[in-house]
Amino acid sequence: MTATTADSGDLLPLVAVRSRPPRHLADLSRDERRAVAESLGLPAFRADQLARHYFARHLRAEDAAAMTDLPAQVRATLVDSLLPRLLTAATTADCDGGQTRKTVWRTVDGAKIESVLMRYPQRTTVCVSSQAGCGMACPFCATGQGGLTRNLSTAEIVEQVVDAARTMTRGDLPGGPGRLSNVVFMGMGEPLANYNALLAALRRLVEPTPDGLGLSARSLTVSTVGLVPGIRRLAGEGLPVTLALSLHAPDDELRNELVPINTRWPVAEVLEAAWDYARITGRRVSIEYALIDGVNDSPERADALGALLAGQLAHVNLIPLNPTDGSSWQASAPRGQRVFVDRLRARGVTATVRDTRGREIAAACGQLAAEPPARRRTGR
Q1: 308 contact partners, CB below 8 Å, separation of at least 6
Q2: 357 contacts 96 by C-beta, under 8 angstroms
Q3: Which entry of 127, 156, 159, 365 is annotated as an active-site residue?
Q4: Contact at 8 Å (CB) between 341 and 379?
Q5: Is 253 a catalytic residue?
Q6: 38, pLDDT greater than 50
Q7: How confident is the model at residue 367 (pLDDT cuts 50, 70, 90)?
Q8: May I ask which residue range the UniProt record assigns to the signal sequence (predicted)?
Q9: pLDDT tens for residues 191-248?
Q10: Residues of the chain with CATH 1.10.150.530
Q11: Under a CB-based contact definition with an 8 Å cutoff, are residues 104 and 91 in contact?
């Protein structure tokens, strides 16, 4: 494994690269996919047919026999060229009565990433990774403690979503067949540090078939620890996705400790970019705040946070800290959580405490580390 400079669209200088994943149709625009088909001596529309099987029917290479509109004599060639296997499920683990499923994926170069599928009564959400590991080094986050391996490709990101859609279509979770409705980029990695792949993935998710999954941009959420240039770029892309800002402290002194990138883009600068994002897109910003007992959960810090957010298009998601190995910090007590919420609401700031789905299988916020949980099923 060697260290190399990230491409110009990414916002961190060094990314550890193993090998480039094979070309996949989700990496390519419609014209690029068609060009591949023509290079194989096939009509361009064959690429559209294959893309429809992938994005609309969620078929994989092993399902090629079901692609009956593709002539048998060309099917294997086209599938081999545009539908390589990018991710293999190493382990899966279920909890919450089977309504939450975490998958540890192995990439073709041996990196491990995680995604989490969560079924609720009115929606189904998948939490996806944008990097293998993370370079942000937030001390309360298991991914940050493990460091960065490499950026994911566009197709490696999209494949996590397509697998979740496939799982729902086939009725593999309790409750029978359903539809994937929401995607949150809150898994492993800092999405805005892999900007080019993130943007291309977002476009694949919202484009109608045969060019994408046809999801609503308003059902997509991109989380960031506060990479200001990326926030500003995303605001101008014409994609009204929700921005989730992982703030975790209202003051620079504490945020420097909890979110080390704050030494580069401090609280005032990050919030200015967030408010500009809300103004440009018309989308409410989600402020993510992990409540850590005796660290950032005092009434005084609640008041300081409320003063920063009052009058802004924002909602605070309070997250009782989820336990991770290597950290002695604990979640705030329920009474402390209630006091924090009340102090924010007293200043007119909407706030809720997030449901801690998946804690028992290390699938909750901050716990993703690509380590097989004690309670698991072997890969599918």
Answers
A1: 250, 267, 271
A2: yes
A3: 365
A4: no
A5: no
A6: yes
A7: low
A8: none
A9: 999 999 999 999 999 999 999 999 999 999 999 999 999 999 999 999 999 999 999 9
A10: 23-82
A11: yes
pLDDT of residue 376 exceeding 60: no
**Residue 257 bears catalytic tag:** no
SS3 51: helix
Higher pLDDT, 251 or 331: 251
Q: How many other C-beta atoms are found inside a 10 Å radius of the C-beta of residue 252? A: 13
Q: In what order do the strands lie in the sheet with 112-119?
A: 350-353, 314-320, 285-291, 242-246, 220-224, 182-185, 124-127, 112-119, 100-107, 87-95, 377-378
Q: How many residues does the chain have?
A: 380
Q: Which residues are annotated as a binding site for [4Fe-4S] cluster?
A: 134, 138, 141
Whether pLDDT at 371 is above 60: no
Q: Which residues are annotated as a binding site for S-adenosyl-L-methionine?
A: 189-190, 223, 246-248, 322
* Closest by Cα among 237, 310, 230, 304 to 274: 230
Task: Determine if the pTM surpasses 0.70.
Answer: yes
Across the range 324-340, mean pLDDT stands at 87
The answer to whether the beta carbons of residues 294 and 331 sit under 8 Å apart is no
| Cα 206 to Cα 212: distance, rounded to the nearest angstrom | 6
Q: Does domain 87-378 correspond to CATH entry 3.20.20.10?
A: no
Confirm if 100 and 358 have CB atoms less than 8 A apart. yes
Which pair of structure tokens corresponds to residue 380?
A: 């599918």
More confident residue, 326 or 228: 228
Q: Which residues sit in the known binding site?
A: 134, 138, 141, 189-190, 223, 246-248, 322
What is d(CA 54, CA 256) in angstroms, rounded to the nearest whole number? 43
One of 114, 156, 159, 288 is an active-site residue; which one?
114
Helix residue ranges, H only, the chain? 30-39, 45-55, 72-82, 142-146, 154-169, 195-206, 228-235, 252-258, 267-281, 299-309, 334-346
Residue type, 138: C
CATH 3.20.20.70 domain extents, the chain: 87-378
Whole-number Å distance between alpha carbons of 227 and 308: 19
What SS3 class is residue 77?
helix
CATH of domain 23-82: 1.10.150.530
